[in-house]
Amino acid sequence: MSEPGASVTTLEENQGPRSVRAQARWLVHLWLIATFVGALAALVGTTGTTLHILIGLTFGGVVVVHIGQRRHTVARLATGLAHVGVWIRPRGRLAFSDLVLAFLTLNVLVSGLVDWLKGYKTELPLSALELPENLMSWHALSALALTAYLAFHVVRRRNRLRSSSIR
Fold first, then answer.
1. CA distances (Å), 5 to each of 2, 12, 14, 30, in order?
2. Does the global pTM surpass 0.90?
3. Strand partners, 137
């Protein structure tokens, strides 16, 4: 029991600005994971493409928020990409990895948009690979590549997902 007249402090008052930023970053990470998994689930399920498109576009929006949270890191890493010798160092590898993620994400969003605007899937001439028919499209292969890379990315950074903060 608290004494009469004693003030009650809230959780937000007990946390410094770094903790609030860390929570915001964690929420964005959760939204990134949830929207990506949701877009995949909507496509695999029988919900049709409209829900898949809406969730996929939400994922793209959350990616923009995520990059905005990391704008200082992204700027610092981008300058390092100009120097090839930096690529073998941890910061250079991180910059290159972020560049690959950006390319794969943009590729999935653009290929999905192109398919939607055309009204049919953009097939790739890969019949010699004998892939299943549903994996012969630009969007499907792009999504598969992004899924694999994101899984690798999340596993490698799983210890920092909760503790990183916005600078």
1. 8, 20, 19, 39
2. no
3. 123
